[in-house]
Amino acid sequence: MTSFAIRPEDLHDTLTTLLGDRAHTISVALGEVTVHVGPAQYLDVMTCLRDAPGCQFEQLIDLAGVDYSAYREVGTDGPRFGVTVHLLSVSLNQRVRVKVLCPDDDLPLVDSVNALWNSANWYEREAFDLYGIVFEGHNDLRRILTDYGFIGHPFRKDFPLSGHVEMRYDAERQRVIYEPVSIEPREITPRIIREDNYGGLN
Q: Are 147 and 139 in contact (CB under 8 A)?
């Protein structure tokens, strides 16, 4: 086991040689290496990062969906949904971030890496539940945080803050029922305390 960390610049050079044109870009910022890959190369690149000498990323430590729709407001155009993955090599004491964009906004889909790292299981289910990203090849892709009858994906930026439906227990029917949200939109203005000597201050 390596006791010292590999320099990000050295990892950048290793990945540039190893991945070639399978990676769109490989960059170093704030001491971290980020690899951008296309959806067609994603599974192949991830397999390479796990198995290749000089990489040996044995652990997937995080995977998250991303909704880039608000990026258009700052002049960045492109696919709406993406996936960001963080990998760790314990044996070589190095980390890498991998980013992939889903090519279709209406059906965001990328390959599952659950067969490579079983820790991806719940992360991919979470991204499916909250963003609607489909992970092709995942053997148990179902919601993990929202209820069975939940409609929509609550981490999408166009999802309403109050949701669409609410649930409550109905004593007459003796079961949980779902109804349209009945919360009236309101603006909350914080109360300002202007008492003399508030908090013991003069």
A: no
pLDDT (tens digit, 9 = 90+) per residue, 140-190? 999 999 887 788 899 999 888 777 777 788 899 998 888 887 766 666 666
Q: What is the phi/psi pair of residue 125, to 5°?
A: -65, -40
Close Cβ partners of 133 (under 8 Å, ≥ 6 residues apart)? 65, 81, 83, 102, 108, 109, 110, 127
Beta strands in 90-151 (DSSP E): 94-101, 109-111, 134-136
Name the residue with tokens 């190369």.
41
Separation of first and last alpha carbons in the chain = 60
Is the CB of residue 79 less than 8 Å from the CB of residue 105?
yes
Measured between alpha carbons, how far is 114 from 109 in angstroms, rounded to an integer?
14
Phi-psi region of 14 (alpha: psi -120 to 50; beta: other; left: phi over 0): alpha
Higher pLDDT, 124 or 8: 124
Domains of the chain with bracketed CATH: 8-200 (3.30.460.80)
